[in-house]
Amino acid sequence: MVSVTRENIKELLPEIEASIADSFFVAIDTEFSGLNLGLEESRESRFDSAEQRYTRLRKNVKEASLLQLGITCFFNGPLGESTDAEENGEIGYRATCYNVVLAPADTGLLEFEAKPLAAEWGAMRFLRSHHFDLNQVVSVGVPHMKAMDIDHFAQRISRGTAALQHNDIDKDSLRQAESEVQQLQRIIDADAGKTTEFVFENLKCAPYIVHALLREVQPEMWTIPLTWNSLKAVVVNPAKRAELEQTDRTLEEWVVQESTIGGRIFAKLVEERKAIVGFQLLSDMLFLIDTFYGELPKSYTGFKALIGDLFPNMYDGKTITQMLSRHERINTFGHFDSPSLLELYSTLTTPRTSGMFAHAPLFQLDIRHTHYGCETHAHEAAFDAFMSGVVFVHAIFALSADKLAEARALAAHTTTHPFDLTRESNQGGSAPPPAGSARRVMRDGSSTCHALPPLVLRQVPQDIETVLAYRGLLYIHMCADKCLNIFGDDEQANRSKAWVRLFSTDGEVPVAESPLVKAFLAALAYEHYVKSPMEIVIACTTSDRAAKVAEYARRGLSVKAEIFDSAVSKRLISPMPTSHYGTMMLGVFFLSNLFGIAWYSLLRSK
Fold first, then answer.
1. Cross-strand bridge partners of residue 362
2. Using H for helix, E for strand and C for coil, what is the string for 92-130?
3. What is the pLDDT of residues 390-433, one digit of tens each?
């Protein structure tokens, strides 16, 4: 991993921009300070619509801060020299990972003050348990500013430091800068005019404010910026000083460049229109737009239009792998069943469990972070981005393999067998091994798990075309099968995987009033709400679980139950009412207590 901080961003930025421009695709990931900041109710609902889900995410993004941006650029083609001689010259993917530590630009100006750092204790403990260093964010975080604010900021300081008033400066920045300037002034006074040029290093306050105050207290001197924490002060005559105040804007140009340098990475991603890959990408994109671009749109439709314009080629690995997990041939051995990114990465890359991926493309990491190949660094943004890219490539491989196998079957006038993608190549049409059995991956192909020749799959630079159907589908809900379609309608975004409807007809006892049903709902792990006394809706994570819930309701509770599978049925339930079942019960409890208090007061008065 290449760690990018304020100290080395200028040296690394040309390399990062070139890597983005030359890459086959770019994988990204972010780490931020909280998941539920600004929310009254932390638990999300499976009944949330796409608009409600976006509103929740937007509130959190407005309060939380982006701390780390991970970028991994993948290049398709021949691999370079490797310690493994058998890999030299092979076709595969080279990866370069950059871990960018971020912090808002410290301008010192009240008008451009960064939002307060808000964090959840749980989130920070979680990041710390994965070796995240918050001190690094504060001390050497790469400065950034919203693109929408840059022109206004440049115009505001273009008049020079002489036009700056103390009431324009943030109080904390002013107090710290005054203290630091006093120390610099003592050094200058102690010299007693012997030196005409001073270099001050290891400055700790907002650079622009330090320059402005030092120029103010030393009218016979002029300051020149060197680095983000150092400056040079030179002695000048009054006439030269007056001339410099009118004409020299070196400091102002330098401050604008320093304060916005982090946003150049975002601007390059937007400019190049490369395929952007991630895992549960929606929150990452929200933080990128809010941090580097501007205010997030208030409306969900406005957000869809904006993100579709900025990043037209997005691929969410979570959405792709969830859909592949239901593919009969591709997921015969459950390679895509794992719910988390780390589990998927481990399953698809570990020889013992890789199965059909014995001939998947090879990966070669930049020499500066080869430890990623042998160690786990989960929840380090760059490593998560690397894992997202690897999972994406394996999805491409699986879809390409399935497409080739289907083409071969059509050419042979046969039907594609469910195990064509996973059978042993040296055993013809043998049955697959028992579930959970380990099979050794051999580089010579003698015991491979795929019938297709490896180089056919590794040499297709256009293989990203196999996943075009998943472009713009972002996973929008953690608990339900909901996807936000940037370029299409919101039908999928507004439905869950499976619903169970418990209902009673006219003349029957209302289902919501049955003691057995109430006890069942109280113990049920799945979310539910009461549409009416005659109807209750339960959201389940899978169709199989919905079938079990419905069967128990019919047999154990003696109520009518109906399953709505969003994948095949158009009989979707009506939008969620404003009150959930829990809110409804809380209201009943409150009203009953209020009635009791009123009745007690009436009796006392008599």
1. 92
2. EEEEEEEEEEEEECCCCEHHHCCCCCCCCHHHHHHHHHC
3. 999 888 888 877 777 777 777 776 555 443 444 333 333 333 33
